Amino acid sequence: MFVLTVDQRRSRRGTDLVPELLSAHERIARPGDGVVLPLERTVGDEAQALLDDAALVVDTVLQVVRDGRWSVGIGVGGVDTPLPGSTRAARGPAYLAARDAVERAKRRPGAARIAVELGLDAGSGGGDGPPAWERAARDAEALLVLLGAVVARRTDAGWEVVDRLARAGATQGDLARDLGVSQQAVSQRLLASMWPEEAAARPLAARLLQEADRS
Length: 215
Description:
Elements: E1 2-8, H1 18-28, E2 35-43, E3 46-51, H2 54-65, E4 70-76, H3 93-106, E5 113-118, H4 132-152, H5 156-165, H6 172-179, H7 183-193, H8 195-213
Parallel strand pairs: 4-5
Antiparallel strand pairs: 1-3, 1-4, 2-3
Helix pairs in contact: 1-2, 2-4, 2-8, 4-8, 5-7, 6-7
Protein name: SatD family protein
Organism: Luteimicrobium subarcticum
């Protein structure tokens, strides 16, 4: 399981962004579609969700950090059952790990404030060095921070084509017609936004998170 704890940066000096965050999450994730307990406000300027799909975790995290206004902690591990109807009432090692992760993410420099922590039930692999799932969690964090830095630096023009391309069935030709530009211009925007590199790396990030969850 994966617990996301999302905390608004500099919330005391700005407006409450949690309602906007919840609306955005509803557009990319629906209950039963990898969502065990949907994203909801837990306390103050913080929100939390329980997911069981690593690819959706990657999608959600990169959607959240794209504007640099959030810190995101990902807790990986078990949760107490039976599950309550609200993530505010849920408990377990993954929730404790997500709390530790978001606190560490807040201290990370740069726009991509993301951290991954394993739940306390992860155990130890014995032998030399950390077990495979600990290495996977560490590598997943490093890759997500890198991807987060890419999306945080993307221009509005880049997002215009990336967001449209993400829609089912959209092609570069469709984008060119919609935007009134040439396909070459669309291709140049995609290359400048590093979308091909991001798209290629997303499955690896999900696979690393899944490997970490095997603990």
